[in-house]
Amino acid sequence: MNSLFRLDGRIALVTGASSGLGAHFATILADAGAVVALGARRHDRLLNVAENIKMRGGRTGVFEMDVSIPESVDSSLNQIESELGTVDLLVNNAGVAIGQNALDVTEADWDAVINTNLKGAWTVAQQTAKRLVAAERSGVIINIASILAYRVAKGVSPYAASKAALVQLTKSLALEWAKHQIRVNAIAPGYFLTEMNNDFFTTKSESRDALIKNIPQRRIGKPEELSGTLLLLASDASSYMTGSTIVVDGGHMQASI
């Protein structure tokens, strides 16, 4: 059964791979046998992730990429193709959030979140798919959404809107690209400790305690608890799945708001 989840011979790209869940995803894919291209804006942080993967026996490369700039995406994909090969496994993980009430969100704030979380995911997915179609190769795209695509929370309206749109984009791309043997699925994590929310979850407060109390498992997730879902969608174990979003949240979606 273990061979069902192997990724030997695959060329993977993980965006937002310089830290947090992106770095974890990249490491898990490399452990499963994929050659992993690390994409993010922070080149120095990518080098640290790459060194860790190499120490574990994996093969990887570092590629500076800003997903909100199409020219940066195109240049990076060309470089990846030249150095590693055509990307046939994409994890669209790059994301940002701004914690402000809706009345205080500026146009610049809105654009920063949407351009990374939605437009960026679209840009990388489309450019990856174009290369696969031209090469007549199959592929897999995994978009990292959020349970905030389905639930509401105060102070994150641009983020929630971007993730809701990403879930719908996943379905649309899956429908159009199935004929090209490109599968598109998504993962919607609940609350996992990352750099984005580290201050909130490591500082005791009434709001933090209330949020954790509302999770049926009474805790936030560990990055390794996303590994199985990632490998399922990345591998041939999910060969008949496309357009699906898998929620991993400790039961949070079933709890009252």
- Total domains: 1
Described by the principal axes of the CA atoms, the overall outline is globular
Strand order of the largest sheet: 3-2-1-4-5-6-7
Mean pLDDT: 95
* H/E element sequence: EHEHEHEHEHEHHHE
Helix segment count? 8
- As a percent range, the share of strand residues is 5-15%
What does this entry show, briefly?
The protein is α/β, with parallel strands linked by helices and 257 residues long. The protein is built from eight helices and seven strands, in the order βαβαβαβαβαβαααβ. It has a seven-stranded parallel sheet with strand order 3-2-1-4-5-6-7, with helices on both faces.
Structure description:
This protein has 257 residues and is α/β, with parallel strands linked by helices. It has one domain: Rossmann fold, CATH 3.40.50.720. Helices cover 43% and strands 15% of the residues. It has 8 helices and 7 strands. Strands 3-2-1-4-5-6-7 form a 7-stranded parallel sheet, sandwiched between helices. Helix 1 runs parallel beside helix 2. The longest helix is centred in the middle third of the chain and has 29 residues. It starts with 10 loop residues before the first strand and ends in a 9-residue tail after the last strand.
